[in-house]
Amino acid sequence: MAIGRTNPHAAALRRNATECEKRLWAALRNRQLDGFKFRRQATVGPYVVDLLCAEHRLIVEVDGGEHSEEADLPRTRFLEGQGYSMIRFWNHEVFENLDGVLASIRQALPY
């Protein structure tokens, strides 16, 4: 399953983005990270992902306290099964170490 039609829920998520998502999006939008194009709140199959570099099939997720590896496992398995790689950051990482987060995203992208 490829990237699908925009999930109606995605528009609401864009309007109500968390401060962490806004901060990371501000650093990634308009190809600011080495020319890579990212989309926010993109629909992939039945899921809405925080940030997506579709060209390189990389999903970037920013997680708050409501997330856990166990709870997110079915979603992660589905997305990885569709050929996407995922990288996750906790909210505090984005706030406390944005440069490190961006460096990790760079490492996950091909050059």
UniProtKB/TrEMBL annotation:
Q: Which GO terms describe its molecular function?
A: endonuclease activity
Can you name this protein? Endonuclease domain-containing protein
The DUF559 domain, residue ranges = 8-109
Keyword Nuclease listed? The answer is: yes
**One Pfam match, by short name?**
DUF559
UniProt xrefs under PANTHER family: BLL0828 PROTEIN
Q: What InterPro entries does this protein's entry cite?
A: DUF559 (IPR007569), Endonuclease_DUF559_bact (IPR047216), Restrct_endonuc-II-like (IPR011335)
UniProt keyword terms in alphabetical order: Endonuclease, Hydrolase, Nuclease
Taxonomically, the superkingdom here is Bacteria
